[in-house]
Amino acid sequence: MHDYSTAYITNCVFKYNLAAQGGAIYARHGFLHLSGLSIRENYASWGGAIFLADDSTVDFNSNNRCKLYNNNASKGSEIFTMDTGNIHVVVDTFSVFNPDRFFAEYVEGATYTFDIQNNWMQLVSHDLYVAVDGDDTNTGLTINDPLKNISWAVRKIQADEQNPHTIHVAAGTYSWETNQQIFPFGCKEYVSIIGEDMETTILNNDFTERTINGYNLNGTVEISNFSLNNFFDSEYNIPFYFNSIDSLIITNIQITDNEELRSILTHSLCNISYNNIYITGNYAETNSGMFFASVSGVMKNCYIIDNHLYSYSGPGRMSAIDMLIFDDMIIENCVFSDNTSSNGDCHTIRTTTSNQNEYDLKMINCLISENYSNNDCVMNVFGDGANDFVNCTFANNHSDNSTIKAYGDISLKNCILWNNTNYEIYMVDETSIGNTYQLDIDYCIIKNGEAGIYNQNNANIINWGEGNLDEDPLFLLSGDDPYQLTESSPCIDTGTPDTTGLFLPPWDLLHHQRIWDGDGNGSAIIDMGCYEFGADSVGVTQHLIPNTPYQMTNYPNPFNPETKIAFNLPESGEVQVEIFNIKGQKVKTLMDCTTTSGNFELVWNGRNDVGKLVASSEYIVILKVNKKEMAARKMTMLK
Questions:
Q1: Which has the closest alpha carbon to 287: 305, 254, 310, 257?
Q2: How many Cα atoms occupy the beta-carbon half-sphere of 183 within 13 Å?
Q3: Closest Cα partner for 211 from 134, 267, 158, 264?
Q4: Does pTM top 0.90 for this prediction?
Q5: Distance between CA 296 and CA 325 in Å, rounded?
Q6: pLDDT of residue 613
Q7: What is the pLDDT of residues 323-377, one digit of tens each?
Q8: How far apart are alpha carbons 477 and 480 in whole angstroms?
Q9: Going by DSSP bridges, is the β-strand pair 552-555/563-569 parallel, antiparallel, or unpaired?
Q10: Is residue 163 within 8 Å of residue 169, measured between CB atoms?
Q11: Ordered DSSP codes for 27-96
């Protein structure tokens, strides 16, 4: 109901309804009088039973009481209110006696008071198990007594910071058609939803336009080990949607071969840690890869390949990734290839500042290749912070004008930009609004050398540094990874001789050792680009520094806000343990003394030397013994 209308609804049953908002009742600028209703087993993305917004009011009859229970939504499983002021919920039966925001969500000035006579369910503070042949009447407490619906497990589980829990999802295909799976399922703070295996734990959403929604959560949320297909026919399909989550961890996810979606993976106001995500072969209307809005964190080993953007009539949409960055962001060992956009206002990648915040973006060991942008560039770079590209390869991308179009400061080290359309880099003149930008290039191959850079009206500062080349990089150009280097490549051992401060991962894009003596002259120097020629393979679980007597570990990692750092000393000496940010600036000294040999454990509480909590980002802990660096380890802080 809309437009300040009034409705009196008495002695009715609402059951088995499906909607995007408000499974049974939706009101915007409405005035409701509810009496004797039974509202159960309805489904929505937000507000499983009731959704109220924009000054709507509701009067629950206290004599002929309503029943609201067993409805499903990703947030506000019974009721969701927005900009309503206080809503006094007077009912005979509600799902739980003391509803938290999962059951009764409120935003933008809405609040609740409750008068509940009976509860329908009990929450369980315990890990839960789900299987395709499970039953929602089971306890779900063991693998031999599993639940059927992931959404029911999320509703049933209870967790907090001191008692985190996991929903274990067995391998199989979860859909409405095969086992009456109800979507979307939501998220709860300190609850991990973990599939058995990415290849075999499959979510085939044929029920509604969303598969997983996470919204307005103050703690940590983790989603891992799923393949996702969205078969529900709706112009608003967004399989993964996350908004306002303090710490969001997503690992081992495949989203492949979906059609007619609005977007693929959308998230706003989140601190993220993403690892091993495959978004391939999808067709979408507005973003066929990832969309970040006010996001910070770390993204590693992600593959956004062969996605297609179509039929969007407005500007600012990306076929691979659109990043509105709130704080520091690291993108490491990722591939963005073969993505296309058919509309003239669309690009492949965009980075920009969220809410005018100054951020630092680092793209390290990334491949950007064979993307098609029906616009003036492949990658748009905006923002007031630093945009650093380290050991990235840009090759065979197509646009109308340039590979990178910059409305901000850029630094490139050990990068390859080759055989892209027209200019490799286009520095935009924004002196009319008081902006002058700087481009720093060192130890890179740029096609056409300095002539491959367009400095509009000579308005910006171009620092053409040491070690730059204009030579064919001699890519392999065959097989699954065609932009590897061949034996005669000028990129071998010609990168930055001193990689201090670059904070490179220990391996290249193929998990080969990152710094290697590729030309066999006895001196290991890093190669240009995202691949290291001739290097040995390293295990993906190997630490930053190979195993030594001084080996360091930390747990948990990622952490919020505290982590334990352990190391061993085989001998006595002067010991320093210091923590640095990704800019190479020291933020904390944990240990500075002379000590004997032995095993040591330190706790870092996420604060710097002046007691201020640091930002969500990656940090390096370095162990020095007798002023010599003996071990180092990357750690990820997520708030």
A1: 310
A2: 26
A3: 264
A4: no
A5: 6
A6: 85
A7: 888 788 899 999 999 999 876 677 888 888 766 667 788 999 999 999 998 888 9
A8: 9
A9: antiparallel
A10: no
A11: EES-EEEEES-EEES-EEEE-SSEEEESS-EEEE-SSS-EEEES-B-SB-SSEEEES--EEEEEEEEESS
396's tokens: 């065979």
For 31-35, 134-138, 145-149, 352-356, which range has the lowest pLDDT when averaged over its residues?
A: 352-356
Instruction: Specify the length of the chain in residues.
Output: 639
Look at 63 and 282; give whichever has higher pLDDT: 63
Domain 552-637 falls under CATH 2.60.40.4070: yes
Give CA separation, 190 vs 127, 167, 219, 395, in Å: 11, 11, 6, 42
**Measured CA distances, 524 to 505, 512, 515, 543 (Å):** 16, 14, 6, 20
- For residue 457, give the DSSP letter: G
Which tokens in the block code for residue 342? 């058919």
Residue from 89, 52, 94, 91 nearest 71 by CA: 94
CA 360 to CA 365: how far, in whole Å?
16
Structure tokens at 198: 């990415």
Q: Residue 315's pLDDT is what?
A: 57
**Exposed/middle/buried for residue 543 (C-beta within 10 Å: 0-12, 13-18, 19+):** middle
Provide the pLDDT for residue 355: 63
Single-letter code of the amino acid located at 241: Y
For residue 3, the Cα-to-chain-centroid distance in whole angstroms is: 38
Given the structure tokens 């001084």, which residue do they identify? 550
- Sign of the C-alpha dihedral computed for residues 536, 539, 542 and 548 taken in this order: negative
Alpha-carbon gap, residue 341 to 373, rounded angstroms: 6
